[in-house]
Amino acid sequence: MPGRTKYLLDETDMPTQWYNIAPDLPEPPPPPLHPGTGEPAGPDDLAPLFPQELIAQEVSDQSYVDIPGAVLDVYRLWRPSPLFRARRLEKALGTPARIYYKYEGVSPVGSHKPNTAVPQAYYNAAEGITRLTTETGAGQWGSALAFACATYGLDCEVWQVRASYDQKPYRKLMMETYGATLHPSPSELTGAGRAVLAEHPDSTGSLGIAISEAVEMAAADQGARYALGSVLNHVLMHQTVIGEEALRQFELAEDTPDVLIGCTGGGSNFGGLAFPFLREKLAGRSGVDIRAVEPAACPTLTRGTYAYDFGDTAGLTPLLKMHTLGHEFIPDPIHAGGLRYHGMAPLLSHIYELGLIGAQAIGQRECFAAGVQFARTEGVIPAPEPTHALAASIQEALRCKETGESKAILTALCGHAHLDLPAYGAYLSGAMTDNELSESDLEQSLAGLPAGG
Amino acid sequence: MPGRTKYLLDETDMPTQWYNIAPDLPEPPPPPLHPGTGEPAGPDDLAPLFPQELIAQEVSDQSYVDIPGAVLDVYRLWRPSPLFRARRLEKALGTPARIYYKYEGVSPVGSHKPNTAVPQAYYNAAEGITRLTTETGAGQWGSALAFACATYGLDCEVWQVRASYDQKPYRKLMMETYGATLHPSPSELTGAGRAVLAEHPDSTGSLGIAISEAVEMAAADQGARYALGSVLNHVLMHQTVIGEEALRQFELAEDTPDVLIGCTGGGSNFGGLAFPFLREKLAGRSGVDIRAVEPAACPTLTRGTYAYDFGDTAGLTPLLKMHTLGHEFIPDPIHAGGLRYHGMAPLLSHIYELGLIGAQAIGQRECFAAGVQFARTEGVIPAPEPTHALAASIQEALRCKETGESKAILTALCGHAHLDLPAYGAYLSGAMTDNELSESDLEQSLAGLPAGG
Question: Which reaction does it catalyse (chains A, B) (predicted)?
């Protein structure tokens, strides 16, 4: 079916397994460490936070994990998601490149996050858990978990980064419509939150702080567990349905991608699209060039250090070997582009260290300019996060225009911006700055790395 | 393919013609009248406001009109839209009924409105027009026209009802992202707006007033035309792609609807889904029971009168024979459910008078309760408008549960609520009232009908 605007799969063609890339890598990723002993963290260390099945998936040496039928039943509400050929954008750019985007905004909450929220809620419910706690920054993850908890009858409690809580009232309303309970973070409800507020009463919060709060609350309640929306191996694995579908859709298009470009915050959307294509590349069946794009305001891959660091600010999690800006990193509260986590998924950091993917950072004004151009040609207003990948895709398409190369570019349009429109307002009014992370702020943030990291 | 959660069509199976129901009706609908002469309004009366092709479609006696290729190219960005079987909602209700919903929220702006915004912008651009003016209430239509104008390079100027302009800042940002210019209505920019403000400086506005402003501005500029998002024949005709697709999708499902339930404001979403099914019924190929659902706060079909009335408040339009609450009707500004226009599409009003469809009004708390139940089972948070149809569909499904009937219910889920979440917040907090239109307000509003109406 070459020549189409979009490539659809029937729900019977939906992947029935997630792909775990770890066993296929030339070297295994470094394990998480217990912060007290310095020894690899075992399943017992994680049991207060995650259900057994997710702990098993986190350390699995199997290349494929079956997706439960009850999860497929919910996936079917929006999956398989469409693969689009951006013909109208190509025409506007005057490029010989072929630009494809895999669109995850068709999910009920408008992003890729339910791909992992749904199985996480399912496994917790199956193991008798009645309540999940989590953090959310921009709000995409909290919305997804609220939706997933509604589908399996779980209570859902979300700590939303203060800056986002105040700036994004619609996010709170969406989560509450699904039945979730919201708290701004830092909050007075946890020791971690109270400690931050004691020192910084006006703290605008960070994902690291919100994670500390959600983890603390889950650990204190036998019937509760914690859910994380990115970073961990099992989260990235759940997202591989994106890439597995895209592979089949490229067969329908009778094409193959030369370049794959995704945005990276914690790394789950990027890993979800890229890992199945990387499998093909490692097996010699593809020569695709894979690139991660991150904000200049939070440049973990391009300017962070590769070291053992905590996943949260209070130091409650195991130590993870990852690209990090330091767990005390506080993003600029006016940064509108999302992707603000201080670390990068350990699995993705390892793959980057192996030289299997490239990375670049882009300032947010160029990203929003790409978002506006995309909206006015392709219709969908992209969420701030994937505008980073769109900006890099447009750079590549314009390079092709100069060289005359007709590359196929695949990008991950992981969500729409319906609840992020004030960021577009800031861009259109000229109020937006690029707020690149300064050398001094980076040095200060990295100084907080744990000893021996 | 019975047993699926959703029924998809490939873009090559997209309808290539719109369906015009007028020639198939047992009696022709009464014509619009020139308010000065009382004679039927002719093409010349409409030429300052609409391009020739749309005027021709408005009075067409052809059953089918070809969709231009350039329109199909844009439709392909989201069409064909999916037909869903609401299996999770059915289970929650414990009903033997089969509930299907045709989902138009997959369009870039999240509603059915682009189905007509795109061809309207196309025909204007093709006839050399450079600027379109329009009104918007809840904001769905203004967003759709802003998107459509961006795709064909037209300027777009939108008068947004004041109450909505103030309560829905995200709508303004969406339209501006597509490049449109926004004004709250009533405005000081037009004679119609100034006249209202002189008498009511704090006016919260109405669709009727905003239409007057947009019409006035278009008529004053040779290079500009006006675009209407509902009510007129050509608008309803453009929406019939919804029903034509649904007919094909029911073939895939190997099922047929026993009941079709849609919400009605101006009537375009309802007509779009219902008219192709009504064609089948008139031809004896279907026994489907077709029902319109409207808000108790704006009950044009169930409590309005069938008379000639103006389409706008200032009396600038031809007189239309329709169910109306009177063109001076001002909806309660706290009404959150949309569907606030004072009249009903003349074509739909005529069909109702012929006894071919039924109608009922529902209070908005029942509607939002249905919306929340739908969100927590099917995932999508429905726009306020289609919650009216969902509430009636749930009523029908629960009747089936009592009687044991296994009816197939088809409803029109014409959009999602991402930009209407404050309405859900009002419902969840208990602040929402049913604000049924009072007898005295109805009498006062009907007293403004033109003489001889």
Answer: (1S,2R)-1-C-(indol-3-yl)glycerol 3-phosphate + L-serine = D-glyceraldehyde 3-phosphate + L-tryptophan + H2O
